[in-house]
Amino acid sequence: MSALLSTEGLEKAYGGVQALSGATIEVAPGSIGGLIGPNGSGKTTLFNVITGYARADSGQVFLDGRAITNARPEKVFALGIGRTFQLTRIFPSLTVLENMLIAAQHKERSRNPFAVAGGAASRRHAMELLEFTGIASHAGALAQTLSYGQRKLLELSYVLVADPDIVLLDEPAGGVNPSLINHLAARIRELNAAGKTFLIVEHNMDFVMGLCDPITVLDYGSVIASGPPDVIRNDPAVLDAYLGAGDDEG
Amino acid sequence: MTAPSSGATAAGRAWHVAWRAWRPAGSLVVLVAAILFPLVFTNPAVTNYGVFTLVFVAAASAWNIFSGYSGYISLGHAVFFGSGAYFVGIATKDWHYTGSKVFALLPLAGLLGAILAVPFGLVALRVRRHTFVVITIAVFFIFQLMAYNLQSITGGTSGLLAPTINYAAATYNNPFYYAAFAIAAGTIALSWLIRRSRFGLQLRAIRDDEDRARGLGVRAERVKLSAFVISAVPVAMIGGVWWYYTTLVDPSSGFDPLFDVAIALMAFLGGLGTVAGPVLGALIIEPAELYFQQQVSSGYIFLILYGALFLVVILVLPRGVIPTAAELITKWNARRKNGGGPPGQALPASAPSPEVDLSADGSKGSSPQASTARGLA
Fold this sequence. Notes:
The structure holds two protein chains of two kinds. By secondary structure, chain A is α/β, with parallel strands linked by helices.
């Protein structure tokens, strides 16, 4: 099966630091791909390049066989790639429901920008997703009143509201307590069973190993290994990269 | 947020219903009062206050449509004000317009404001935050310099005089009052429409996190530029009214840096990003300033007061009168409905306190996941 999302030889330098050097990955449709690697190995940069938040110096990004390299974030989203951020980014002074409607608006049929925000269908769909992630009771509250974990859930919810083909999650379990992590993993599995494709950057190895297959390992901006969890766990190059870079905290 | 968001509790809902019923009624009262004002207070010294106040109600509301909703603080809207004033002045002279016919030029002044806002916005909106503010100030000074130096068009330092009008002395102010009122009312209506629209939601998302908004499909450049252009139109129109009323525009009064400070202060005082905030701010500040200028011979003392007021607003009411009051009322209401329970049990749906506890709502209609998430939160 051909890849839903793939990159080919992506290069990205920040000053003298080569963040990506020939990063080539593939995400098969319907999979939950994992992306791991020591700190500074280029995982978030790879996400940024894919989603248009950073420009690639060279290389290509393909979505469903179509080149989308260096498309702008709004375009990438419209094409069907949703993402969350490592440091959760919500709209704090909007209500939880309004947060959802931001992502829903580009799907709305009415082209009139002066129409009242959020049609009935959008609101219903948004509420369904909030029910699904478990924060529906906060729909009317300002997003800034949510706890850290709830913000993670909100970010996941509003990325899902536009029904993207693939969801990129940047450390969804980071700083989240264990029970909520299980809740999150269960949601992701459920969505995946319904056909949604994921690519997940995560430092929490239990989370990644239990959820993702295949797992791709980045080090110094290029892929050093890729395969099922069992293979990755015992791959000498991976062990070397992690041990060489010290622990993976932070 | 001026209104408490859809309340999670019965108390919240009851309050919400009351608020929604009250708001149109309150708006209607203000509208009727504004229309009757010059008929009740016929003294020209009083209606003079009315005209200037409405000029600033319109300008501050228009400024708020862009700066308040998007969070991009423009200190260059005097460009539109001055250009509107100069345009009406030049057109009146060149086309030999007199009397009430001059008011017919106002839509064209608005159009000119929109046309100027496109290149202005395209340049300034390439940058954000402080840099954006600096660029708007720079563009402002370019326009002021042009007014000084393009003497054949602008009259240089002597400016442009309006033709005398043969209105009766007792009601001389009224046409200007109603022209300013029409523009102000239209601007407030537009602001209200935008606030609740998809466009407005996108602007507020840009204010909170522009890059995140783009990642959710918001075409930020287009949205920002549209808001900038829309907000320029009433400011240019009201500049035309102001010129005809004061009968003179020169570079220092048409392109006045204090104009930008004033409308920003009005919006900050009343509540940045709310519909009523800039209106309230203008209603407080402009009459006070006029009164003060009349009482104190030195016109510079009010500048010190301006600065002091700005500091007080930022320190005491950083979010402005309207949001702060709305929050207080919501809290008070929730406490009252809760029958004097401990304050921590109050459930103001929109209160910004991070400790807001919404668990009282968990008993009904919440999925098992909901309670899990809440328990973990």
